[in-house]
Automatic annotation (TrEMBL):
Domain Aldehyde oxidase/xanthine dehydrogenase a/b hammerhead positions: 19-129
A Pfam match: MoCoBD_1
Keyword set, alphabetical order: Molybdenum, Oxidoreductase
Superkingdom of origin: Bacteria
PANTHER family: ALDEHYDE OXIDASE 1-RELATED, XANTHINE DEHYDROGENASE
Protein name: Xanthine dehydrogenase family protein molybdopterin-binding subunit
Length: 685
């Protein structure tokens, strides 16, 4: 029998999606459904003085209004991935910590009636002075509370910089960026006695069900969350979102199912985004290009409600050998929505800074940027000293350069013209952490010869169903037609969410262990496997995916317009489960990186502190016309110690692309772009 893993196969749910048969959270019919529409704060800091319910309670179809005076009390001990999470404590008091905080929910018989009443609901505030102005030298700046990205000091950075032939010292800045998934956040909740049922758009039904149980002081077995299809998340659906908490509140108060779907502006204003960053990078090198020191410190904005870490310095500890390396992270508390993980968190803005600075080192030394990276390839972890479990960055760089035609490049800037256009090329190398988290899977051998595989995974549209079907088929030594996969249900047991580029690795491991147990008992009955113990046996090694991205751009100096003409990415992501879908993931990531480089920028009014472009008219993302033909492929790679040798392909495509494009813009124009996005006014000559 041929293996299913490693073979390009179309999505198992593809037909359902293109024919409209697949139902997303806002599509599922529920009897007796009412609709809730959220009312958001219009001030950046203050208190609610009054919610004039009498103004709307007699409007057509209105069932009632929930605000801080009548909302069910939530358990303040409920927390999120980054600790106690004030964004969960909705409608619990009159305090307004940021513009966009939910202050009321209007519930009515129809969506139109609820929306009309919500728009008419008068809310008055006692507005207080706010601070939303981010800067690295903000007086409230403090060392970040680190979870994964501890500060490091290896060697004597100052001495090595002093001894260097060339020193680059520059600041690099990235703005607030929003996840911008196609599907808005939506949830439907209802109570069956003491049991809370929900259909939600999220990335982690099991953990979100546990959070919901804590919020409403319920036993975990009394909360059931289903997430059948998700139209993208990019991190914004990794949390227990406001739509689900408010829908559960309304269902409890009104005694019927309630659906809450955020509008597009509400998605921008009330769900997590990437924080703005301000990064200082200092790199010292000898005349031959050998790095002596790397100093990377990054400041990022947070909300006082939540501790969060934007680990911008992760790559600095991994990518290049240097005698001395120092990293620091600082957090700046502001009156803003709590940030959260988004599309390669930390690594994406961190890569822009580090790889831009590396390009500047190459420029000042007169060295090929590719050669500079090859000369500083480490043998072991530059900070940890641990061996790499696998490291194929050099293969990505060399094969990418060959395919891109890098060897014909004149490394001097502003040398290529096509009429009025300036043309340039650039590259960036990058890594993204790899590994697995505990998950459980259950497999049942059915009487008809098929196997039901149940695991609490989530398919964000990345093809998890198809990948896990192939993994299960190979593990059971049967064809994929004999696998029935059940996912996206908190009742299927503990499972890592779709995030951190660890979904397939974590879920696949659990399925393989369950299959081994089932085969050991003659493929009869039902078995459950939990990988908690297995993960503890992994040796301490540096585990990462790697990639190299090459970009070609044209720049019109008269208008400032930048166009990406070519993108090429080579990736080392372990064994590729499904080449068709994996390529789709990394290409999508590169498009996200292009969008980050040229378009995305959350803007706030300096007076009100509120977002001024909370929609797709004002917040620009890469559209079809912005995206060139993209070439992406994989170098042979295998991750030892993990079943099948897989890593993750979800986020690494995002990580290096913005830096490659920025470096190409410098090559075209001779002017460095150290702030994203690379807007027309920043390029215009």
């Amino acid at each position: 029998m041929k293996n299913a893993v490693g073979v390009a196969q179309p999505r198992v749910e593809g037909r359902a999606k293109v024919t409209g048969a697949a139902r997303y959270a806002a599509d599922v019919p529920v009897p007796g459904l009412a609709f809730g529409v959220v009312v958001l704060s219009t001030v950046s800091r203050g208190r609610v003085l009054d919610v004039d319910v009498s103004a709307v309670q007699d409007m057509a179809g209105v069932l009632g209004v929930i605000d801080h005076r009548n909302a069910p009390r939530l358990d303040p001990a409920a927390g999120g991935f980054f600790g106690p999470d004030g964004q969960l404590q909705l409608l619990q008091d009159e305090v307004i910590p940021f513009a966009g905080r939910p202050v009321a929910l209007v519930v009515a018989e129809t969506l139109e009636q609820a929306r009309t009443a919500a728009e008419a609901l008068p809310v008055t505030y006692d507005e207080e002075p706010h601070d939303t102005a981010f800067s690295a030298d903000h007086p409230a700046s403090r060392p970040a509370v680190t979870i994964f990205d501890e500060p490091v000091d290896v060697g004597d950075v100052e001495a090595e910089l002093a001894a260097s032939s060339v020193v680059v010292e520059e600041r690099y800045r990235t703005p607030e960026e929003h996840c911008s998934a196609m599907e808005p956040h939506s949830a439907t909740a209802w109570w069956e006695g003491e049991r809370l049922e929900a259909i939600d758009s999220d990335q982690a039904p099991f953990s979100i069900a546990r959070t919901l149980a804590t919020l409403f002081s319920l036993s975990p077995d009394l909360v059931h969350v289903r997430t059948e299809h998700v139209g993208g998340g990019f991190g914004s659906k990794g949390l227990c979102g406001p739509q689900l908490i408010l829908a559960a509140m309304a269902a409890l108060l009104f005694g019927r199912p309630v659906r809450v779907t955020l509008t597009r502006p509400q998605v921008f204003l009330a769900t997590a985004m990437r924080p703005a960053t301000d990064q200082l990078v200092r790199i010292g090198a000898d005349a031959d290009g050998r790095l002596r020191a790397i100093h990377h410190e990054a400041a990022f904005e947070i909300s006082p409600l939540v501790e969060y870490l934007e680990g911008c310095t992760e790559l600095t500890k991994t990518l290049y050998a240097a005698r001395a390396i120092r990293t620091r992270l600082s957090a700046v508390p502001l009156d803003i929505l709590p940030p959260y993980s988004m599309r390669g968190p930390g690594a994406a803005p961190g890569s822009f800074a580090l790889e831009s600075a590396m390009d500047e080192v190459a420029e000042r030394l007169g060295v090929d940027p590719l050669e500079l990276r090859l000369r500083n390839e480490p043998v072991t972890g530059p900070v940890s000293g641990l061996p790499f479990s696998s490291r194929n960055l050099v293969a990505c760089l060399r094969e990418g350069a060959r395919r891109f035609g890098w060897d014909t490049r004149d490394h001097r800037p502003r040398r290529r013209r096509e009429g009025a256009l300036l043309t340039g090329t650039g590259l960036a190398a990058t890594s993204f952490s790899a590994g697995a988290f505990p998950s459980s899977a259950t497999i049942t051998a059915e009487p008809d010869g098929t196997f039901t595989v149940a695991i609490g995974a989530t398919d964000l549209g990345t093809g998890a169903r198809t990948a896990l079907t192939a993994i299960a088929a190979d593990a059971l030594a049967v064809g994929t037609e004999r696998i029935r996969l059940r996912i996206s249900d908190s009742g299927l047991g503990p499972a890592w969410g779709a995030g951190g580029s660890r979904g397939t690795t974590s879920w696949g491991w659990a399925i393989i262990e369950a299959a081994e147990k089932l085969r050991a008992q003659g493929c009869r009955g039902t078995v459950t496997a939990d990988t908690t113990g297995s993960l503890g046996g992994l040796p301490a090694r540096e585990r990462h995916s790697f990639s190299a991205v090459f970009a070609e751009v044209t720049v019109d100096p008269m208008t400032g317009e930048v166009r990406v003409r070519r993108l090429l990415g080579m990736f080392a992501v372990g064994r590729v489960v499904n080449p068709l879908m994996a390529r789709s993931q990394v290409v999508g990531g590169m498009i996200g990186g292009l969008s980050m480089a040229l378009h995305e920028e959350g803007l706030r009014d300096p007076v009100s502190g509120r977002h001024v472009n909370a929609d797709f008219a004002g917040y620009h993302i890469a559209a079809h016309a912005d995206v060139p033909d993209i070439e992406a492929d994989f170098v042979p790679d295998h991750e030892p110690g993990i079943p099948m040798g897989v890593k993750g392909a979800g986020e690494i495509g995002n990580v290096g692309t913005a830096a490659a494009i920025a470096n190409a813009v410098w090559h075209a124009t001779g002017v460095r772009q150290r702030s994203l996005p690379i807007r027309l006014d920043r390029v215009l000559e």
